[in-house]
Design a protein that fits this description.
Layout lengths: L31 E4 H9 L1 H8 L12 H20 L4 H5 L4 E3 L5 H4 L6 E5 L4 E5 L3 E5 L4 E9 L13 H16 L7 E9 L12 E9 L5 H13 L11 H11 L3
């Protein structure tokens, strides 16, 4: 980084072939793919987002949550049984949700990682995408986004924890994507929580879960403005300021000060 804070010096080759498609090239007219997770990264820290998508300095990735993925896979299979029947799942009946799992030829594609529901936002030329867990169709034919969440807690399940704001943004992005694809989307979405029970006397080669549904009223009107901010961020030649709440920015700052 030069003294003015610019990421690239005049002699830096920005458009390296290895990141031509994956990372943002301000001179390219091609739509730039932007995942739901990268939008979340921007909302948390524009600096880390810029380094990740513009410079190719990706944030460290944690281990895969394979147990959570297994639960998601089984839940999809279970709800697909009722999707084929066009009947409500017993959990939906117990929560008095007048809907059935949505049947659509693109459901498998919409649930596939790195594919998902897609929409090209023309004002920004950003191709936004995100993989949904499920979609339910209400009696009035509107669609409700459904997200599966795995946890293990003895506390009451709520959406009040500050760190669950990312859950809410996730659902709102999916609502926005479906709406932009021409569907009538309900503001009411549902989180299906599967809660691993730790109060059992022993494991016995079996982990037992209790299921619960938490409704959420999404507000997706923030998306258009955020996408414009993201495009402005990507087009800039200077790195955004470090976020004081960002653990990655704090790490980089401490490493720089320590001479590492």
């Amino acid at each position: 980084m030069d003294k003015q804070g610019s990421l690239f010096s005049s002699t830096t080759t920005v458009n390296r072939p290895w990141h031509k498609k994956r990372y943002f090239d301000p001179s390219s007219a091609e739509p730039f793919e932007l995942s739901r997770t990268k939008i979340e990264l921007f909302t948390r820290c524009p600096r880390c987002f810029y380094l990740d998508r513009r410079a190719g300095v990706e944030i460290p990735r944690g281990p895969a949550f394979t147990l959570n993925s297994a639960v998601d896979t089984l839940l999809k299979k279970e709800f697909d049984i009722y999707r084929d029947k066009q009947a409500p799942h017993p959990l939906m009946i117990s929560y008095k949700i007048d809907a059935v799992p949505f049947q659509h030829p693109s459901m498998d594609e919409w649930r596939k990682n790195f594919v998902g529901v897609r929409y090209l936002d023309k004002p920004t030329n950003l191709l936004v995408f995100g993989a949904v867990d499920d979609i339910w169709q209400n009696r009035d034919k509107t669609l409700s986004v459904v997200d599966y969440k795995s946890t293990a807690t003895e506390k009451e399940l709520t959406l009040d924890d500050e760190w669950k704001d990312s859950y809410k943004r996730q659902m709102e992005i999916y609502q926005w994507l479906l709406e932009k694809n021409g569907f009538s989307v309900s503001c009411t979405g549902y989180f299906v929580f599967v809660n691993g029970q730790t109060g059992r006397d022993s494991f016995n080669n079996k982990l037992e879960f209790e299921m619960a549904i938490l409704p959420y009223e999404g507000k997706r009107d923030w998306m258009s403005g955020t996408l414009l901010e993201i495009k402005d961020c990507l087009m800039a030649d200077k790195i955004p300021a470090a976020s004081p709440q960002c653990e990655y920015c704090q790490y980089r700052e401490k490493a720089k000060n320590s001479g590492a």
